[in-house]
Design brief:
Shape: globular
CATH topology of the largest domain: Jelly Rolls
CATH class of the largest domain: Mainly Beta
Oligomer: single chain
Strand content: over 45%
Distance between the termini: 66 Å
CATH architecture of the largest domain: Sandwich
Number of helices: 1
Largest sheet: 10 strands, mixed
Structural class: mainly beta
Radius of gyration: 28 Å
Number of domains: 3
């Protein structure tokens, strides 16, 4: 175990007093909450009103009204009151503890041990009694201290305990243990399990724990082992710098670094929803102790000290590592990108081009220079202004596609190429750009360039900055020049080869289709025999983990229907949604008054589901209409459904930026074996 802490356990609390039943665990850090003050050598209050990235409703404060120690316990109190506080998180640049720019209707506290208690591997356990009620979200969890692999969730998150809406409806006495990991939002991943302790979590203290060793994490309540996950079920995909670019983490990454503890009670948020009239305040989380142990058998890996292993608990179904994709732009010569659209095949062959503002000799370009066994693109930047770029092929002869490209789902995408710098002035910076036509350009500057040797270069799309000369930035839905190189501040002579766009999973480069509009005013199809061209991302699936959903366009048993969309939800311990989406957003405000979503559905098999089907629409998640329950309907027969757009708007749908006009799922937690078919999905404006 690696430990980084400024304080350790009190000598008055020997390891034998721990709830941990294994004698191989050695206590290395604890807080028993004796005395009358929160121990500032172990905890720091986070103070902000940012909403935690989850649209939460509270301000976190350091006031004794919201957190205090008394009677041997830490108490965190969520209150309903108006409070003004900080609009940035404590770790963000420009954070000001005296900032009062955000006003909210609730207060609470969030304590963390960062830089006062940080650990890699061990047993972390907390004895606590929880709050209850709609919109109440207590959590005992861990975040990385150094964020080695980048921001959330690439560096990981370990949730020891979470519960939402306890003692209400279907939530009851359920708590959750979860890992968050993967790649940059919204393509993050998580996996976890739930558990209901023998007695109510809001009436009794329970001890919540994780045992974290190299390559494995186990969850416990009162020493009952209820879940396990191993490194085979998690991954991270992160940018490792300009030379390496994006990579899949090795070994047990991201859960192989120092993490620290967080204790908090949130109010509202995307998961629990808002408090309602039945929610009472104040709500309290009481903590009896926090204890951290190291494994005496192997302090480096934490392996060998597992407690009360339940042989019936097998590792959770994990999330597979993403599949890498590559689109070559220049490799020993210029490349063409091949597409199919409208029943036709196309090749858009890129064209190496220069800009010299009419001054011949400013830029000298040779995209066919032989260099050993390779053909490279040789570019001499002799004077300003000037740049070199790859531009779209001329598609003007097509009746189906326009010039340019759509880059879809490229949040973890990059330009990757080999660069040889023959010469460069000390004052020169090399800029790499993506271009949608001036001034819609975004750029970044390369760093630490070497002269006289080949070097690998990665430009992540997430690092691109807007045009610094004139207001504008690249439009990923309409890229005319997918690679631009331009010197700033001096001259340079470079060579380029092996230039490609690299990304993972469902990323793509697609053609720009003729007749596609960003503003829709008349009735439009979403799916009738096929996905309409306006929804160019097509059919998508989002699932909490594993291979849970299958989607396919098939011939209907009812010949008159032609093609239908077939959707299957296959596993008991996962959840997910199927959807149809565009790579950009659409303005559909014309549908606000009288418009409605219409579709046909047949549920072939309800599996274990008894609560029915849900539909919704999104305006770039988490913006959306909210769930619209259909109930237990269309069982074995086709039915037509109509949902007023005004109902979606009242649930939160913003009609100026709809990107997902149709989402469908069986009710959450009851999806195993559900098989449904869909047809004639359209938005109607009568």
């Amino acid at each position: 175990m690696v430990v980084n802490s400024t304080s350790t356990t009190s000598s008055s609390v020997p390891s034998s007093s721990s709830s941990s039943s294994s004698t191989d665990w050695e206590l290395v850090w604890s807080d028993e909450f004796t005395g009358t003050n929160i121990d500032s050598t172990k905890w720091t209050h986070e103070q902000n009103c940012t909403g935690g990235g989850n649209n939460e409703l509270q301000c976190y404060t350091d006031r004794a009204d919201n957190s205090f120690v008394a009677d041997g316990k830490l108490t965190i109190v969520a209150k309903k009151e108006t409070f003004a506080g900080q609009g940035k998180g404590d770790d963000e640049p420009g954070y000001n503890v005296n900032d009062k720019s955000v006003t909210r209707d609730y207060t609470s506290a969030r304590l963390r041990s960062k830089n006062k208690g940080d650990w890699k591997y061990g047993r972390m356990e907390i004895s606590a009694k929880m709050p209850q009620g709609q919109g109440i979200w207590p959590a005992l969890w861990m975040l990385p201290t150094e964020w080695k692999y980048g921001g959330w969730p690439m560096s990981g998150e370990i949730d020891i305990f979470e519960a939402v809406n306890s003692n209400t409806g279907t939530f009851g006495n359920t708590m959750h243990g979860t890992l968050h990991f993967g790649r940059v939002w919204p393509n993050n991943a998580y996996i976890g399990d739930d558990h209901a302790p023998a007695t109510n979590i809001w009436e009794h203290f329970h001890t919540y724990a994780v045992e974290w060793e190299e390559g494995e994490i186990r969850w416990y309540v009162d020493d009952v082992h209820f879940a396990t996950q191993t490194k085979e079920g998690w991954y991270n995909y992160y940018w490792a710098g300009q030379t390496e670019g994006y990579k899949i983490g090795e070994g047990a990454a991201p859960f192989d670094q120092l993490f620290h503890m967080i204790l908090n009670v949130a109010v509202g948020g995307n998961w629990p929803g808002n408090p309602n009239a039945q929610t009472t305040f104040p709500q309290k989380m009481e903590v009896d102790f926090v204890r951290v142990y190291q494994c005496a058998k192997n302090k480096t890996t934490g392996i060998g000290c597992a407690t009360n292993i339940n042989p019936d608990v097998t590792p959770l179904i994990g999330v597979p590592k993403p599949v890498k994709r590559e689109f070559e732009l220049f490799k020993n010569g210029v490349k063409g990108l091949q597409f199919s659209a409208g029943g036709q095949n196309f090749t858009n062959t890129l064209r190496p081009t220069i800009y010299d503002n009419g001054s011949v000799g400013n830029v000298v370009s040779n995209p066919s220079l032989a260099m050993g066994d390779s053909v490279v693109w040789d570019i001499a930047f002799n004077a300003a202004p000037g740049n070199a770029y790859l531009m779209t092929g001329d598609m003007s002869g097509s009746t189906v596609v326009d010039n340019g490209f759509k880059f879809t789902n490229m949040s973890s995408g990059e330009l990757k190429f080999d660069l040889y710098v023959d010469a460069i002035q000390p004052s020169t910076k090399l800029q790499i750009k993506l271009d949608s036509g001036w001034p819609n350009v975004s750029y970044t500057e390369l760093e630490n360039l070497k002269v006289g040797e080949w070097q690998s270069v990665s430009v992540p799309f997430s690092n691109l900055k807007p045009n610094s000369i004139q207001t504008g930035q690249v439009n990923m839905e309409l890229i005319t020049n997918p690679f631009v190189i331009e010197p700033s501040g001096g001259t340079a002579h470079v060579k380029i080869n092996n230039l490609s766009v690299k990304c993972v999973a469902d990323c793509d480069i697609k053609p720009v289709l003729k007749g596609v509009s960003s503003t829709l005013t008349e009735t439009f199809n979403v799916f009738v025999d096929d996905v309409d061209s306006n929804w160019d991302f097509g059919i998508g699936e989002w699932q909490t983990g594993g291979d849970h959903i299958d989607t396919a366009i098939i011939d209907s048993d009812d010949v008159a229907r032609g093609k239908v969309l077939d959707v299957k939800f296959k596993t008991a311990d996962q959840n997910g949604v199927a959807f149809i989406q565009a790579t950009g957003t659409k303005n559909v405000t014309a549908f606000a008054a009288d418009g409605y979503l219409e579709f046909d559905m047949k549920v072939v098999n309800y599996g274990t589901n008894t609560t029915g089907i849900v539909v919704k629409a999104d305006c770039v998640s988490p913006c959306g209409s909210g769930d619209i329950p259909l109930g237990f309907v269309a069982n074995g027969e086709w039915k037509t459904f109509k949902i007023n757009i005004s109902q979606m708007v009242s649930g939160g749908l913003v009609l100026t930026k709809v990107n997902t006009p149709f989402v469908i799922l069986p009710t959450w937690g009851s999806q195993n074996g559900v098989h449904l078919q869909l047809d004639n999905i359209r938005w109607v404006n009568p």
